[in-house]
C-alpha cells in the first residue's frame, strides 16, 4: 500500500515537473525569438509611412540577408509552429492557474487563448500571401498596397495584427510570472501597466502602417 502511494506521488511530481518545463519553454519561445521578430517586423514595415521608396529599401535589405531562408525557418517558422503546438497542449492538457487570479486576469487568460488562435490563422495567411505565393521575389510596397486595397483584407489584417500584438503583450506578463520575475502582487500590477503600454505602442505602429498601405496616408 505504501509502495503504491510512493509511485503515485512520484508520478505526480514528474508530471508537475514536465508541466513546469513545458510552460517555461512555451513562454520563452513567445518572447525569444518570436516576440523579438514581431517587434522588428513591425518596425521595418513602418518605413512605409515615410514613403514607398523607404519601405522598399528596408524590405530589400531584409530580403537580402545572408542565409535568409534558413534564418526564417529556424528563428521564425519552427518556433511559431512549436509555440502553437505547445499552446494547444497547455490549453487542453496542462492544469491552469486561473483560480489563483482575479476576474480581470482570468479574462486575460481567456483572451490569450482566443487571440492565439486568431494570430496563428493570421500568420499562416500572411506568410502565404507575402512569402509562398510570390516565391523568391520579395514583398514590396505595391504588393501590400494591392492586398490591403480590399476592405475585407484591410479589416482582416487589422484584426489579425491587433490580436497578434495583444497575444504578445499579454504573453509578456505571463512570461514575467512564469520565470519568477514578478512574484508579488505589486510587481505583477506594474507589469500589467507596462504590457498595456507595449500593446498600445505596437498596435499604433502596426495599424498606422496598414492605413498607409490601404489609403496612402
UniProtKB/TrEMBL annotation:
Iron as UniProt keyword: yes
Presence of the UniProt keyword Heme in the record: yes
Protein name: Succinate dehydrogenase cytochrome b558 subunit
Cellular component per GO, a single term: membrane
InterPro entries linked to this entry: Cytochrome_b-558, SQR/QFR_C/D, Succ_DH_cyt_b558_Firmicute, SuccDH_FuR_B_TM-su
The entry's keywords: Heme, Iron, Membrane, Metal-binding, Transmembrane, Transmembrane helix
Residues that, per the record, bind heme: 41, 83, 126, 167
GO terms of molecular function: metal ion binding
Species in which this protein is naturally found: Virgibacillus salarius
Residue ranges crossing the lipid bilayer per the database entry: 28-49, 69-94, 106-128, 154-178, 190-215
Pfam families: Sdh_cyt
Cell compartments where the protein resides: Membrane
Amino acid at each position: 500500500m505504501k509502495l503504491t502511494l510512493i509511485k503515485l506521488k512520484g508520478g505526480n511530481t514528474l508530471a508537475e515537473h514536465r508541466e513546469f518545463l513545458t510552460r517555461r519553454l512555451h513562454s520563452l519561445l513567445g518572447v525569444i525569438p518570436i516576440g523579438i521578430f514581431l517587434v522588428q517586423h513591425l518596425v521595418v514595415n513602418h518605413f512605409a509611412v515615410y514613403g514607398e521608396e523607404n519601405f522598399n529599401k528596408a524590405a530589400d535589405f531584409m530580403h537580402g540577408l545572408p542565409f535568409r531562408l534558413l534564418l526564417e525557418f529556424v528563428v521564425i517558422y519552427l518556433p511559431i509552429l512549436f509555440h502553437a503546438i505547445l499552446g494547444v497542449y497547455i490549453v487542453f492538457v496542462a492544469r491552469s492557474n486561473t483560480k489563483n487570479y482575479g476576474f480581470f486576469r482570468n479574462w486575460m487568460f481567456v483572451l490569450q487563448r482566443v487571440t492565439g488562435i486568431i494570430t496563428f490563422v493570421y500568420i499562416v495567411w500572411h506568410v502565404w500571401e507575402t512569402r509562398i505565393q510570390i516565391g523568391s521575389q520579395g514583398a514590396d510596397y505595391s504588393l501590400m498596397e494591392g492586398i490591403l486595397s480590399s476592405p475585407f483584407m484591410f479589416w482582416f489584417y487589422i484584426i489579425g495584427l491587433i490580436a497578434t500584438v495583444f497575444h504578445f503583450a499579454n504573453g509578456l506578463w505571463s512570461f514575467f510570472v512564469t520565470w519568477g520575475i514578478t512574484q508579488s502582487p505589486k510587481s505583477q500590477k506594474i507589469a500589467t501597466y507596462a504590457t498595456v503600454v507595449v500593446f498600445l505602442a505596437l498596435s499604433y505602429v502596426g495599424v498606422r502602417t496598414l492605413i498607409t498601405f490601404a489609403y496612402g496616408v
